Amino acid sequence: MILIEALASSRLSGDVLEIASGTGIWTEELLRSAASVTALDSSLEMHERSRSRLMGNPKVRYVVADIYDWVPDMSYDAVTFSFWLSHVPVSKLEDFVSNVSRCLKLGGRVFFADQRREALIHEVMDPPGGEIARRSLINGREFKIIKHFYSSEEIIRCFLQEGININISNTATLFYYASGEKYRAPEKSGPVISP
Ligand SMILES: C[S@@+](CC[C@H](N)C(=O)[O-])C[C@H]1O[C@@H](n2cnc3c(N)ncnc32)[C@H](O)[C@@H]1O
Fold it and tell me: CB 3.0–4.6 Å: which of 59, 61, 78, 176 could bond 12 by disulfide?
């Protein structure tokens, strides 16, 4: 609830890009203020669940793509990616943030929320200090996912390098949320997207 309120107060409007949109929980909230939402996820099944949740809302454009390969086809007024950044390995962080900046208009807004390290209750980092979290189920099955808990300072620095000023707040529980604005063009060159 606090995260949803934080999203609402971060004023994402116009054409919004939602990265790793999943089942559409956040898309539903974004639709309250956005003119359009481009929901990007690598899983067609997630998009189908989202489409059903949102009853085929025509303001949503679904893109099935791996974000690390995706080349944006337009520039956006806002970019959002909740419960995603902690799945980005450090080897891909700079490229990911650079891509976010390149597809964001000057003055465009960013919002994201994620877990803090304290939220890691059911998983263990394997090896400790690495980027893989392992979860063992009672039936003996094991799942491994990339999990990297970036510090607030690391996040702020990385976005600043790409021309995005970010403010981060912790909730009283296990989460944080971040919002910000692109105040200058990224320094590194990349494909230019027309406004
Ligand atoms: C932890 S979920 C977050 C979903 C949603 N944002 C939420 O909070 O409910 C991560 C989502 O990222 C998607 N995903 C994983 N790897 C991806 C990639 N390389 N490119 C795009 N989406 C990816 C998954 O299919 C999944 O829907």
Answer: 78
